[in-house]
Every structure is written in structure tokens, then in C-alpha cells.
Amino acid sequence: MNMRVNIPVELDRLAVRNDRIPRPVVGEPAAGTASPHESATLHVSGEAVYTDDIPELRNTAYAALGLSDKAHARIKGMDLDAVRKAPGVIAVLTAKDIPGVNDCGPVIADDPILADGLVQYVGQPMFIVVARSVAEARRAARLGKVEYEPLPFLLTPEQAKAAHAGTTDELRLIQGDVQQALAGAPVRLRGTFSCGGQEQFYLEGQIAYAIPREKDGMLVQCSTQHPTEMQHAVSHALGWQRHQVEVECRRLGGGFGGKESQSAIFACLASVCAWRLHRPVKLRADRDDDMMITGKRHGFYYEYDVGFDNEGRILGVKLDMTLHSGFSADLSEAVASRALAHFDNAYYIPAADIHTMCGKVNTQSATAFRGFGAPQGALITEVLIDRVARQLGKDPLDVRRINLYGTDTRNVTPYGEVVEGNLLEPIMTELEASSDYRARRKAVQDFNAHSAILKKGLAMTPVKFGISFNVPAFNQAGALVHIYRDGSVLVNHGGIEMGQGLNTKVAQIVANTLGLDLECVRLTATDTYKVINTSATAASTGSDLNGKAAEDAALTLRTRLAEFAARKYGGRPDDVVFAWRQVSVNGRTLPFAQLVEEAYWDRVQLWSDGFYKTPDISWDKATSHGHPFYYYAFGWAVSEVAVDTLTGEWRLLRADILHDVGASINPAIDIGQIEGGYIQGAGWLTSEELVWREDGRLMTHAPSTYKIPAISDCPRDFRVQLFKTRNHQDSVHHSKAVGEPPLVHGISVFNAINDAVAAVGDGRQSPDLLAPATPEAILNAVEALRQRSAA
Ligand code: MTE
Ligand code: HPA
Ligand code: MOS
Hints:
Elements: E1 16-17, H1 40-45, E2 61-67, E3 73-79, H2 81-85, E4 89-93, E5 118-119, E6 125-131, H3 134-141, E7 145-150, H4 157-162, E8 171-175, H5 178-183, E9 187-195, E10 207-213, E11 217-222, H6 227-238, E12 245-249, H7 264-277, E13 281-284, H8 287-293, E14 300-308, E15 314-326, H9 332-340, E16 352-360, H10 374-392, H11 396-403, H12 424-434, H13 437-450, E17 454-467, E18 476-483, E19 489-493, H14 502-514, E20 521-523, E21 526-527, H15 542-569, E22 577-579, E23 582-585, E24 588-591, H16 592-601, E25 607-613, E26 618-620, E27 625-627, E28 631-644, E29 650-659, H17 667-685, E30 717-722, H18 747-758, H19 775-790
Parallel strand pairs: 2-13, 11-12, 15-16, 19-20, 29-30
Antiparallel strand pairs: 1-22, 2-6, 3-5, 3-7, 4-6, 8-16, 9-14, 10-11, 10-13, 12-21, 14-15, 17-28, 18-19, 18-25, 22-23, 23-24, 26-27, 28-29
Helix pairs in contact: 6-7, 9-10, 10-11, 14-15
The structure holds ligand MTE, hypoxanthine and dioxothiomolybdenum(VI) ion.
């Protein structure tokens, strides 16, 4: 393989002087280089090693799980004789075989590893079978006979709300006098709305491979976004200290939030079995089991009361959001908190009273999913703005424009953070022109006037996404950078590569700092024995945090090398230049590798740690106020659809997205993230439907019944551009996080479908379309609107 590697990052910064003071960039912000993903060739050739590809040790055994058939029941008896006697079975373990604590909840201890006397959803693991082969383990796992005493159960957030059943604390955000704002409002929208959840559908399923080590140690190879949390959960389950457990992960075949906390049950169970049996044990859920066991995005049920003036300006919002939390808390409170801090999306809201409740229902425990509550928070406001625009006979974009956050006034969020570096207006203006929004609005209206069955729809929606974990302490990261004597560099950091290009960006940053290119820099697997006490790779902060930590380590090394060079060759350390794999010192230029070798003989330490913590963030949970986000990422999207009003089928005709990633470290990767996020958001709001039967069984647990977008669902005409800017904050290379914010652009697809359906009536009435807008739901909305219009 002979891949050309581009010179990384911001060409004008390639010649890096050795001063730690950031240099101002003059004029146009320099773009980074679109280097290919560091594993791109490995991904397509099949050489990339995922957890299940790691060569297995002799004596490895394979596990499978026995799952609950009941949504809520007492376990009166488990007859596992047939399981034990099945061919190939080595052992069958239940809750009582867990030596430490039978819990793997990330925040609250309400997540049993194996059900102990009580099951709380269909699919909950009750026992684990270890066998000689995967097939034998799976076959045996179905032979358990369980006697249940059924208990009453709830399945929807509405039911949970009515029953006051919550998994965790309720949150409240009060700003201004909302009663007064609503009482005087000329236009008022009151009602309910809901959106469904979403399966993460990572291509690589959940998996853990546990290998016992000497002196009560365990190595866990695990597909997880959070190795440190897995280390914690495994040590807890085994009753061990954390230093006994090493968790390693080279890469994920996708996580999308689904492996932030919920990889724990797999890590714990593989480890408990490996410890009991003194042999390596692998637990890999097949797709159906994975979907039956693990949690998804939170569905939301909303009750709203919103007041507007006659121009469509928002005066006050009273909003009650009930989350489909599932049977346990998991990360639900943090998700609710992010929803609370994103219902404003891009708009100034003078008065608000927002309440969240995490509804306890007897299903999988809902968990992180790209956006983490922010898309659900933004959705309701974007839907209501369209409705009020229709009611007032205005173009929704005009109503959005007058509501946007300002730069000097009307720039404080309901939770008290000032929207600094606001790009909503300039991005809107540029995209409105480049997408031809006005002309296409007219064309859509003309089309609809002459088309009885096919109706087109157009929508342009914004995103403002707060960057930082909303738990301030999580905003820290570490890295290790090693320079070997030949000048090659090895980097380890606490982040997880899940396809998003984190390792590519970190390699670019380190290469750039040392004046090297990507061929000189290699990233290792993430490992809890190297950089420790890490946060999840989540909240889109992966490259912000780990990139800064790696840059910090690389800067320390550059400084040491510069000081050595000046000592040896004269001149000032600050004048030493690292560029093009060479070092220039006092009029002389020598290869980087030569300087490194010389530094070694002078006993210069050639490895360093690095650390970063995000400055200036705070959050007061009691009042839901503070400065939770270091900065915001902004963007706008325009979606155009055509809906067949006889079948409910629809097509995405064209998408234009203009998105702010600050000064991009890698435009190719960032554009990929924007495209992927948008399509994933569109999937959430259209084809991806989770259906639980009346007995609580999830019926959509395989690709045959759960439809994620395919390549054929992408718009033929797909125009994604990066907005030319740089982060006003001192983020890594003045870039911005990109992982989650673009998912919110999917809302423009939902609104475009609504726009098309509204064309069935007089255009003033809004369809009663809930999310996801499946063809069935679209058809029902068309019918309902036709009847309303006829009446
Ligand atoms: N992109 C790919 N290809 N695969 C993923 O699993 N996860 C998303 C996003 N983009 C994901 C992805 C989610 S949920 C997050 S929080 C971020 O990537 C995490 O990575 P980052 O912080 O390095 O952007
Ligand atoms: N995103 C993802 N995971 C989290 C967050 C967040 O904002 N806060 C706590 N865990
Ligand atoms: Mo992403 S939902 O924060 O893993």
C-alpha cells in the first residue's frame, strides 16, 4: 500500500516557532488539510482490527445471555438444568455468581448486571451461559425455564408521567415571568407533541473479551466509548481495586453514544465469567440480542404553552418534557439537562418555565445518542415556529430570523450563558443565498399549485450546539507522547476512535507541533494502564480535549528539544524552527531524527505527558443556570422533499448545509461528520421507528424491521460547506467540535415533510405529524388535514 500522506494542518503554521504563545492568524483563517482517515485503507481492506478480530488465546470460551420474556415480573424460579446439559456448555452463571456488586449503573446504582429476583424489561439478561463455541452458547441460552410472577408495568412516557414514576431527579429552569408573558401574548400555541427514540445501530455490536491475568488481574478488550468507566464497572463487579483491571480498545465500529455507559454489562459479564472459569471469555451480542438488551435515544413527550407576538416573536415558553427513560436512570438526567439547555436552539426566549422528568417505563434503559437530548430539545421549538409561521401566513425563515439570538442584545440563553461568537445571522444569510432559498420557495409553491398528488416541501432550520460535557468535571483529558531515537513519534491519549477521525486529528496536531508529517506519527490503542481517569469520548469533545492534551505534551517535548538545540548549536531556544521533518537552529538545519538522537545522548527526556481542562465552565443543577458551554457550534440546513400523498412515501431531493467547525483541522473528516450527522438525524425523525408490543417486547430488533437510512435515501443533490471562520475561544487550532451538532440539521427534513403535507390544505393549517414521520404517519396526517380542510 502506497498512500500519499499530505502535510498536516494549516500550511501557514507548518513552520512552528518555539513559542508557546498562540500567534494571531492574519486575514483569512487557514484551513487544515484534508488528510484521509488514518485507518481509511484498513477499513475498506478489512485489515482494521476490531475487538472481535483480535487473535484469540487458546482456551477461549464464548458466552451468551438468557433474556427475560416479561416486562416486569418477580422471578419465582429459574430452571437452568437443560441449559447446563446442552452440548458444549461449560458453565451457567447467575446473579449470585457475581463476587462483587451486581450493578453497573454509571450514575445511580439501579442497573443490575444480571436480574436478581426481579425483571424490569423484556430482554433483560438473567443468566449467562459459557460454552465451547458461540453457536452452542446461543443455543443453550434459549433453554432456560423461568417461572415469573407478573407485575404491572408502564411503557410510555405519558403513562410514567401520569403515574409520577421517574428514574431520577426532575429538573426545572425558570427565567423571567412566563405567566405574564403568556397571558399577554397575542398568539398562543398549546398542546402536546412527541418524538420517538432511536437505535444507535453501530455496525460493530457490543462485545467484550476478558482475559484473566496473574495475581488477580484482568485484561478486558472492549468495544466502548468509556474505557475508564468499564474499568470501574468491572472492578466493582469483581470486588477489586481499579488497578487490577486494564481495559484496552483500538477502535469502535461506531458508538454514537450507545457505548458510553452500556458497554458495561458486557465488560462485567465477560470478566466475571473469565474470573470464575480461569480462562479467557468472549461475550459478543448478536444484533437481535444487542437491540433487545441495550438502550436507545430517549423518546420525548412534550406539553407546551408558547406565546408569540403578531410577528411571530417568541414571548414566553412553558414546556414540560417527559423522557422515555426506560427501567433505570443510566445517563437520563444528563440527557434531560442537555434538552433543557437546547430547547431554545437558536432563539432568544425572554421568559421560560421548563420542566423535565425522566419517565420510568419497563423497557431498555434509554442512553446517550448523538446529540444527547439537544436534538429533542430543539425539535419542539422548530416545530412550533413552523406552526406559528403558517398560522400568521409568513415564511418560516422570516419568523426564525426575528427570533435569532442577537450579538449585543437578546443574546442571553434562558440558563444564563451569553451566546458569544454568534454566527447564526451570517451563516443564515450566506446559505439563504447559496441555496437559492427564496427562488426555491416560489418554485415549490408553483409546483404544489399544479400537482394534486405529489407535494413538495422546503425547510431551513438552524442549530446552536453547546460544546462541553454538561458535568464540568468531565471536561479534562490526558495524553502521552513518545519520541523514539529514530525520530518516530507514538501518541497515546484517553479518547476513543469510533470512526469520527479523532486519531487522525490528534496525529495532525502532534505532527504539526513537531514540524513532522503524518507518516512520522502513530497512535496506539486507548488503554486504562496508560492515560488514566479519562472521560467518555462523548459530548463531541474528543478532539477538543484529547487534541489539546496531546498538543500540550508535544509542546513540552518541542521546548525540551529547542532548549537542547540552542545549548548545543547556539542561539535562542525561541528561534529554533521545527518544519518539514527538519530543525533549524542558529543558521544550521538538521533532520529532526538527528536532533532527537543527539538529545538522547545528552540524556534529554524524550517522552512527556500532557493535560488539558476546559476553562470557564460552571453549572448549578439546583437552578439550571450557569455557563455550561465553552463555546457554541452553529449551522443552518435547507432540505427539500417530495411527498407522495397517496402512499406517504417521500424523497429527499436536495440538501444544503452550511456549518461552523471553526478553523477546521481536517475538512474532509468534518464534512463527513456533517453529512453523517444530518442523515442520521433525518433517519431518527422519519424511517427509524421503535415499536414495543403491548406486552413490552421490542418488535423492531433487527434491520428487517428497523430501517436506518441507506445510501439511496441520501439526497441526489447534497451540498455541504464549512463556514469560513475560526473559534473565538482558544480551542485546539481554533477549531470546533463537529461530532453531534450536525445531527440537529435532520430537523429540516422533518419540517420539509410537514411543509409538503401542509400543502394538502390551505397552507395555514399545520399537519398533526408526530416524529418519526413514517410513510404511515404521513398518510394519516394527509388524511386528517384533508378532512379538517373539508370541514
Ligand atoms: N462518527 C462516527 N463515524 N462514529 C460514531 O460512533 N459518534 C458520534 C460522533 N460521530 C460517532 C461519530 C458521537 S455520539 C459523538 S459524541 C462524537 O462523534 C464523539 O467523538 P468526538 O468527540 O471525537 O467528535
Ligand atoms: N454528553 C455526553 N455524555 C455526557 C454528557 C454530555 O453532555 N454529560 C454527561 N455525560
Ligand atoms: Mo455522544 S451521544 O456524546 O457519545
